[in-house]
Design brief:
CATH class of the largest domain: Alpha Beta
Order of helices and strands: EHEEEEEEEHEEHEHEEEE
Number of domains: 2
Largest sheet: 6 strands, antiparallel, barrel
CATH topology of the largest domain: Threonyl-tRNA Synthetase, Chain A, domain 2
Number of helices: 4
Shape: elongated
Number of strands: 15
Helix content: 10-25%
Strand content: 35-45%
CATH architecture of the largest domain: 2-Layer Sandwich
CATH superfamily of the largest domain: Threonyl-trna Synthetase, Chain A, domain 2
Structural class: alpha+beta
Radius of gyration: 19 Å
């Protein structure tokens, strides 16, 4: 059995990714230049990771500019000091959060549909931020773009459930068709499963149903030297 370092902060963003406000307690406050690194006893702020950008918002009256995991702890970078052991109200920028929840889920749905059409593709990497993309080893004919868009939006409208949960490495081996070679075995893992598609390792936050996404569009498909890059976006 592997021993994991216990994070001080409860990850409420996993328990309820739609929660927009939360009362929490300041565990530590450390000044770094003109900014302050805050650790809380619980948080709704998603830290940057898995290709998804971190949340923004407020801790009381101070602005949260970035959230990240460092040395096993969730660090909220803010523009003002907070008193240790004081209570603080967390408020996330919901428009920002919901936008990237939809973009992230859209990337996984696009991947699921692509793998059903082109099972020979091997996933390489992806990003679900301001310029979202997914990349594969293998070729896709760019003229298939409209056909792919039509198929993914047809599937999207089926209102498929999106399930995310904690998973052990062994569970992922059983349920996922593809496991990234660099997937760590020495820390807690999570997975996403959309409808009846195969599960995938993923640590992000997502919408509950594909229909929330609106619609998915593809900006371009570039295949070069056996590598295909697909840039996509969402509307609605």
């Amino acid at each position: 059995m592997l021993n994991f370092k216990q994070m001080q902060t409860k990850q409420i963003y996993y328990q309820d990714p739609y929660k927009q406000e939360l009362e929490s307690k300041v565990i530590s406050c450390e000044q770094k230049g003109n900014l302050f690194n805050i650790i809380l006893d619980q948080t709704i702020f998603y830290p940057e990771g898995g290709g998804q950008p971190s949340d923004k918002g407020l801790l009381g009256e101070v602005m949260v500019s970035q959230v990240r995991i460092a040395e096993g702890e969730i660090i909220h970078q803010v523009n003002g000091a907070l008193e240790i052991n004081s209570a603080v109200t967390e408020k996330i920028d919901w428009d920002w959060r919901y936008k990237y929840m939809k973009i992230h889920t859209a990337g996984h749905l696009l991947h699921d549909v692509l793998m059903s059409i082109f099972p020979e593709l091997v996933p390489l990497k992806g990003s679900h931020g301001k310029k979202p993309f997914i990349e594969y080893q293998g070729n896709i004919d760019p003229t298939k773009k409209e056909e792919i868009v039509a198929k993914v939006n047809e599937v999207l409208q089926q209102d498929l459930p999106v399930v995310t949960k904690e998973a052990s490495y062994e569970e992922l081996i059983k349920e996922a068709k593809f496991i990234p070679p660099n997937l760590p075995k020495n820390k807690p893992l999570r997975m996403i499963k959309i409808g009846d598609f195969s599960a995938m390792p993923d640590g992000g936050v997502h919408v509950k149903s594909t229909k929330e996404i609106g619609s998915i569009w593809i900006a371009n498909i570039n295949s070069l030297n056996g590598i295909t890059n697909i840039r996509y976006g969402v509307e609605g």
